[in-house]
Amino acid sequence: MKYATSSLACGIGLGLSLSMGTISAIAAPPAPPAPLSAQAQQLQTQYEAMLNGLKAGLSKALPPVDDAAKATLQQARAAVAKATADARTAKDALGKVGTAKALVDHANGKWLGGAAKGIAAAEAALKKATTDAEREAANKDLATWQADKEAGLKALAERQAALEAAKLEEPKLAAANQAAQDALAKAQAAELAAATASLKVVESFLASDKLDAKLVLCAVLANATPKGLAEFAALGKEQAVTVTTLLTDEALMKAMLAAGGAKDGMYGQAAQIYAAIQKASPRAKDGLYQKLALAVSLEHAVPIKQSNPKAATNAPDTVDPLKRYQHFEKASLAGELDPAFKTLNTWELRNVVNGDEPDETLAWGREMLRNYRPDHVLNPDYGWRYSRAVATDVRYGSQNVKDDLPELQQYQNIIKNGGICGRRAFFGRFILRAFGMPTTARPQRGHAALSRWTPDGWVINLGAGWGCPEAKGVMELSDTDFVLETQIRKNPAQHAKALRAQWAADAIGEQKYVSLKPSSGGFWGMMALYSKKAAVGDKPATPAALGENLGEANESAEVRSRALVKATVTDADKKITVAPNGTITIPAAACGGAQILGSFAGGHQIFSGGGTITCDVEIPRPGKYALTAKVVTVQDNPKMQLVANSTSPVDITIPYTIGKWQQTPAAEVTLTQGKNSLRLTRPAESRGLTIKEFTLTPLK
């Protein structure tokens, strides 16, 4: 789609410093507003007159709605709000029975079970003790665990009593919960009936684009505010031209509004960024890249503070919008992004380009995962593609966060040292953005949850499903409204109706509907909401949450190393080659004890989550060889021990490669003529290790 932007771009350079401020990392008390300049005051008066004129005209043009119908809808909404609160209270009360049972299970299992294991270990240590110091330490441990057992038995008795008491109340609580849920369903049906009746009255208006030109102009003026536009336009001639051009470009304003509007109402800033991108890239005027340009412009209208390495003192404070666009355009053209990237709409693309990571870190993320875990990149399950790396490789626990390196970027440190809750979710969203996949924060107590796009709808990774009462919403929307928003956007004609209702709310100055405050908003805001529900259905189907049980846990080495996409291996792939100088190359496919994966570098590679890697090799000339391996790691790894035949173990140092291919330091090994068996053993605490090949170079 082309927009009339030639005059918008005229005279605007690529630098955005005049209009782009910075975001403070720590919120400070708001400073008193600076007085407007005379020019800004004049512009504000001009924009206010324009907005007031539009509001007056549109108020008369909107279809009249009976006051009694409005009152009925408001009363129905209030009844739903009360019934919702009552239903939540009743459900929470009934849930106390389950909580009491969980506490009993915890005392029986982890508490007493852990104490039993500790006592057994201490008693075994006591039997093996040969010195007074060892016996003293073992007795001390034994006393500690026995005290823990006594505390557990006491807690179990208390919790069992609480469970029995809760069970006595359970029938009454279950009946109260059922009654509350029935009352909620009845209130929701009444609300839906009232909204449906009003929708019939305004249907012809919502279905017509007759007033769109005035509606979109009014909506932009109202959301940007005359003062905000005036302050931006007064910055200079270029900014003034930008605002004027924007307010005369109906198609651009409509596209901005349809994609969710400029961040914090900064329409002038968004228009300036959009013009700069289109001036820099001819591709940004049509199709996918026009949507990408608009997405960047709307999201970066408020500068995004950039997360940088601590050592990079000269790094910019905020993400450069033009460079962010150019990064994704280049990656898309190079085929580095997910194939579905080209199908995304502008609103979805906003949730790709809004990360705080530097562009070079996005490039690193793609290279790292393609090198280290290509099976995550090729995972046919879209619900886990890329983001499965959180469960397999971002260790749960904060004990190693202290080892973050100042020379590494934030996301490199997260996969290196792990973390809890936020850090794991941050990495999951980062790696999705790196491959062009939309993702949003979805905070939930006790889980590293995130939401992500799939072709079948948005799903939750590492947390409870949509509607979880412990979740804090998504993008300032409740779970229900966010899912509704994702689904209405699949139907542009129905989405347009909802937009017109919202523009009508702006035209008459209604209080905004805030999703997380159900009682907010006026009549037209409710028409926007219920036109979506009417089109999608009151209870839209959503894909189930994925990995709730993995949200705050480490997977076993066996599970970590399990290939998601198994490679086909032929005899030719396993062929060991000998160069004229005697150097022997052992391809990954010739090895056992690890998962064989296809490699983006060609051929195969193996991934090991721990254990022993084996291979047999024919040696034409006996003697000493220098063994090296081409490896990728994303964490510090202990040394690997090499045993050739039955010789003494030789240590092989595994370098920390930060996701890039690198050769290990050479290890000297003595081999015999003919068949030699190599065993490479890794300690149990080892993290992931990817190997492309082994090389044996003869030593003179």
Give a structural overview:
- The chain is α+β, with helices and mostly antiparallel strands.
- The chain has helices at residues 6-9, 38-61, 67-128, 132-206, 212-224, 226-233, 237-246, 250-258, 267-280, 287-299, 321-333, 346-353, 359-372, 374-377, 388-393, 410-417, 422-434, 479-488, 492-507, 523-536, 557-560; strands spanning 439-441, 450-452, 459-461, 577-578, 584-587, 595-598, 604-608, 611-619, 623-632, 640-644, 650-652, 662-663, 667-671, 674-682, 689-698.
- Among the domains are: 67-206, Helix Hairpins; 557-698, Sandwich (Jelly Rolls).
- The protein has 21 helices and 15 strands.
- The strands form 3 sheets. Strands 4, 5, 6, 7, 9, 12, 13 and 15 form an 8-stranded antiparallel sheet that branches.
- The longest helix is centred in the first third of the chain and has 75 residues, at 132-206.
- The chain starts with 5 loop residues before the first helix and ends with a strand.
